[in-house]
Amino acid sequence: MLRSKLQIFLLTPVLLLLVTSQALIAQELNTPAPSPKGTVTQIVGLTEVSISYSRPGVKGRVIFGDLVPYGELWRTGANNSTTIKFTDDVQLGGKAVPAGEYALFTIPQKDEWTIIISKSIGWGTGEYKEEQDVARFNVPAQKLAKPVERLTIEIADMTDNSANIFVKWDRSAVSFALTCDTDAKVMSQIKQVMQNPPADDANVYYRAASYYFETDKDLGQALKWVDKSLSIKPDAFWIVRLKSRVQAKMGNYEDSLQAVSHGRNPHPISGSFRPDCRGAEA
Question: Exposed end of the chain (fewer CB within 10 Å): N or C?
Fold first, then answer.
């Protein structure tokens, strides 16, 4: 009897250790999610666009018209509703959408999809309420030559003011346009900064002048800002080059050539010289 009790006493720590080890192994065991999370973030002009979604796979199944029925609301992914977020007001498919985070729902059909931007964010489509729609519009469905195994959402075809958002899965795809008023935001910044501009920052004047030049605004004002920038950094070749381009666009070709000549033969520079890379951006 005493011997049995002693054996139990000695074995108990070992058994506890084995049970604990098995529990820890179970806790640390990770396997791939059936629909892994994905995020795409892109700056369009000055607006940050972020899309978060789960990415189910085809896995040999019939997707549209079966797994995703035609004519029914879809979360555009799996698990939680897909979300799309904007730091500024935008337009989607020509519809105004205020800055904020929304659910991206869709209603797939064989030939066209309905895109829905909604305040109803939650699990699946259970939280969806039509009265919380912010925008709703239709886009044509496209047939892909090559199948896409996992649901893919992309932001492409970018300009400073626009981009296209693509949703692709299996052999189907749709896209819709995103536009943002980058010019209004930049002009507001320029107006605010130039009300009390820094006296010794050549780059502020350079960037303002460069924006006016690139967007065909008041070239006379652009030239004034370039001259102010050069008064702070007279040997900055990129500023001289911008002055030449502004003058040429104004039709002052003789002055433009003189500016180019100055840029090729700048004033002597004492010590080491390193251009302001921010000002030298394309």
Answer: C
Closest CA to 219 of 256, 168, 264, 271: 256
To the question of pTM greater than 0.90 for the whole model, the response is no
Q: How far is CA 138 from CA 101, 167, 240, in A?
A: 21, 14, 50
> What angle (nearest 5°) sits at the alpha carbon of residue 66, between those of residues 154 and 83?
30
Spatial contact of 96 and 135, defined as CB atoms under 8 Å apart:
yes
Bridge partners (DSSP) of residue 95 are: 92
CATH at residue 191? 1.25.40.10
Rounded (10°) CA dihedral 67, 72, 78, 79 = -120
**Tens digit of each residue's pLDDT (9 = 90 or more) over 102-137:** 999 999 999 999 999 999 999 989 889 999 999 999
pLDDT of residue 9 exceeding 80: no
- For residue 275, pLDDT beyond 90: no
Location of structure tokens 């896995």: 59
Nearest 5 degrees, angle CA 52-CA 56-CA 61? Answer: 155
Angle CA(112)–CA(101)–CA(154) in degrees, nearest 5?
A: 50
Residue 26 has a pLDDT of: 53
> Is the pLDDT assigned to residue 268 strictly greater than 50?
no
Distance, in Å, from the CA atom of 132 to the CA atom of 224, rounded to the nearest integer, reads: 50
Residue 202 and residue 236 in contact, taking contact as beta carbons nearer than 8 Å: yes
| pLDDT given at position 48 | 98
Q: Tell me the residue range of the domain where 61 lies.
A: 37-179
